[in-house]
Amino acid sequence: MSFPTSTKAALLQEPFAKHTISHRSLSALKPGEIGIKITATAVNPVDWKIRDHNTFLPSYPAVLGSDAAGTITAVGPNVSGFKEGDRVFFQGIIGTYDSSTFQQYCKMPAELVSKTPDNITDQQAAGIGLATMAVVTAFYHSTGHGLIPPWEREGEKAGQGKAIVILGGASSVGQYAIQLARLSGFQRIITNASLTNHEFLHSLGAHVVLDRSQSDAASFTSALGGVPLMFVFDAISAKSTQVLGVQIIQESKSEGSELVTVYVVRPEAIDADAIALGQSKEPKVDIKQILGIGSAPDLRYLSEPMAKALTEWTASGLFVPNRPLVVPGGLGAVEEALALNKQGVSGQKVVFCPWE
């Protein structure tokens, strides 16, 4: 096995265009890199938002996709712990087309790659990297809440005696947030979702799951059960969820709490009404927005140990991947997969397999 000099890929030939299937060249492996045959790639909202807003793409033709699983076909110099034939999963690198995932081959820094255990499929593994890194940034980085991560000493006690509210528990990000909150030792994990997803979210570690259609600030406050609220994590980052997050903190009178939300690609990423509401009365609520790109230099101290931890957690069953919704058709399914994700799916991760 070796790393090819070109690969079949789904390409954006120009801004806002539909994908076309063609070949593109690949550069040789550098020290510390591995070559990967991509067997499954997940679709995330960031993919269609990047195209809709023409951002994060330095040149055209462009390759989208930053969430995948596959098999190592080549190992570059100065790489240890990996060999040809290993199954792996990873968060790709937005804007670095040789490390993007809507194609049949890519290359990645080995330190950002997790090994896929035998107890999960590549379709399951493909949806772990990006969404988990978003939560890791929100929970453990200084731009988020800055907790000690659970792979470090005392990290499993970071949430001891405290509650966390996770808005959008059935989303991909929400599911991983529930599990990382459990691994961080939170006494009370409260989320909301449609009724069909309640049992599943309880199995991931949520203590209270409210009906999404009926959950208001008062309902969340009641669900705290007297346990102090540390912070609210908004896995959706819509106007309505940002406002609700602020309302929950103010309704529960949680001094020192804050709303942490994921970055969304749109002109007004943090809603102006949510900001104004947060400063309108006591307790004042700060809104922090995070961008979880694991390859960023200031996040490598989290993303590298996270990659190792995910290998162990998924193998032991401590960390459960999203349930995949596989769209057939190989690279030709990319537009259908993007449309399905944009339309919205409940409790599942849209995935397609580039080699079909």
From TrEMBL:
Enoyl reductase (ER) domain span:
10-352
Q: Signal sequence span per UniProt?
A: none
- Show the GO MF annotations: oxidoreductase activity, acting on NAD(P)H
Cited Pfam families: ADH_N
Q: Kindly give the InterPro entries that the UniProt entry links to this protein.
A: ADH-like_N, ER, GroES-like_sf, NAD(P)-bd_dom_sf, Trans-enoyl_RdTase-like
Q: Which organism is it from?
A: Penicillium brevicompactum
As for family, the record states: Belongs to the zinc-containing alcohol dehydrogenase family.
Q: Which residues cross the membrane?
A: none
Question: Which Gene3D superfamilies did the record assign?
Answer: Medium-chain alcohol dehydrogenases, catalytic domain, NAD(P)-binding Rossmann-like Domain
Protein name, UniProt field: Quinone reductase
Ranked from the top, the taxonomy reads: Eukaryota, Fungi, Dikarya, Ascomycota, Pezizomycotina
